[in-house]
TrEMBL record:
Listed pathway(s): Lipid metabolism
SUPFAM superfamilies named in the record: NAD(P)-binding Rossmann-fold domains (SSF51735)
Listed InterPro entries: Enoyl-ACP_Rdtase_NADH (IPR014358), NAD(P)-bd_dom_sf (IPR036291), SDR_fam (IPR002347)
Listed name of the protein: Enoyl-ACP reductase
Organism: Tetradesmus dimorphus
Amino acid sequence: MDFAHIYPMDAVFDTPEDVPEEVATNKRYAGNDGYTVSEVAEKVKKDFGSIDVLVHSLANGPEVTKPLLETSRKGYLAALSASSYSYVSMLQRFGPLMNPGGAAISLTYLASERVIPGYGGGMSSAKAALESDTKVLAYEAGRKYKVRVNTIS
């Protein structure tokens, strides 16, 4: 399989205005422009016009190694933002680019249903939210964009 292009994306940021100055000037982002969800969607639209498949394969929780009882609000919300809301954001922006009959898929984890010691920091909650959001997104995006929305573990 050949890839036409790889687009770096930080799915925590929906638009350029959402990127804090300390992130924008971080060496991690040096040489990369247009890495927010909306900017990457625009690049894909420009380069391909439309897409058939959207894959959400990301999870990030800065406190994932902490037990839930030791997780800060900031760490918990960061896990939800990166691991769950990012799928909503991606479908908001990539949904209009998807061909009818296309498919959006995300990856979840068993910790959404069972206790997995060591998978903390709000990540189990984030994966449960991702699964719940997937059901709503399947209903909404299915009607609006005529695409299928699912998650697998």
